[in-house]
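thought: user wants a sequence for this fold. calling inverse folding tool.
action: design(structure=
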């Protein structure tokens, strides 16, 4: 990815993260902090690793779709 492409994607990501609910943003933040693990997240929440992984998958998919829509919209402006 070239540097010129990175800024629009980062801007889109920042905007899309703000559209997530607070619990969704918290899950993403915890998962991607150093040593963040699905197993630890599951233990803390009293859930299963599979359930946490599925939640993260849905959140990442929503973020990806949002980023793609925002970039497409910017390209047509």
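)
observation: tool returned 77 residues.
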């Amino acid at each position: 990815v070239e540097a010129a492409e990175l800024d629009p994607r980062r801007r889109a990501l920042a905007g899309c993260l703000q559209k997530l609910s607070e619990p969704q943003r918290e899950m993403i933040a915890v998962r991607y902090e150093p040593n963040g693990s699905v197993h630890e997240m599951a233990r803390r929440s009293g859930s299963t690793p599979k359930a946490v992984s599925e939640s993260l998958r849905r959140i990442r998919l929503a973020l990806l779709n949002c980023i793609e829509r925002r970039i497409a919209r910017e390209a047509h402006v």
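thought: summarizing for user.
answer: Here is the designed sequence. Helices lie at 3-19, 22-32, 38-45, 49-75.
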